[in-house]
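Re: the multi-chain job from yesterday

Posting the exact lines I submitted so nobody has to dig through the queue logs.
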Amino acid sequence: MATTEEPMTEPTKGGPVRKRLIGGPGILLVWLYGVMVVGAVSRSAVQISTEFGHAPLAYSLSAVAGVVYGFITYSLVRGGETARRAALACCAGELVGVLVVGTWTLVEPSAFPDSTVWSDYGMGYLFIPVLLPVSAMYWLRKARAPQGDRAQIG
Amino acid sequence: MLDALTVATAVAALALAAWCGWAASRDQPTKDWHFIGMGVVTLLTVVQLVVGIVQLARGEKPEQGTTIFVAYLLGALACVPVTGFMSLAERTRWGSATVAAGGVVLAVLEVRLYDIWGG
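And the result, structure tokens for all chains:
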């Protein structure tokens, strides 16, 4: 993982220094999101390639979750205000997704012959899928403070 | 052999998680001793990967499929070193917290490996 590189502290061409989003608690978020990316993407890749017909809805939802996680991870590592807003929007979408799919699996289990990453609010993943967007949104809102955010948290 | 190794790795991973979690709670970054601990846990996962591949080469079949088994072995191997490098980049308590989270994730992977092998 290239998170040890620090391109975001270097001034980019024709632009100001990008705001670092992976300082302090951000690094923990990157790790957890990274784990969820690997988990959701590899899981859905195996399931879609070997037994897609068994539970197409569940496997597609896992793949979508993997893509969303991937985008949030990339945004966090990239840093900057645009990335922060994009990540914030995706985290909101992720939270809605977890809540909708979690409720859906409880209300109508027959639609899901096999579970997804978001089944039962992510119980199979220690509820990380439902806790992660909440903590990430908290962190991303806090990171908006123009200066001194590193000093406060470090 | 593999089952014993899986249990040992899971226990070591949890111990590492507790140790680094303790450092994080005391507002400390990871230190040399923590990296030695990470090295020990990583060594266990390397041995596990080798033993796992030898078992496969001998013709034994994991209960839930060879692909998933090997994927989990590689994931278990990568888990702690990745968090170690992240803690080098983040020299605060949050680096320690990340390694602690890595230990917990590794322990979960070991539980899954146990099931996948069919122990």
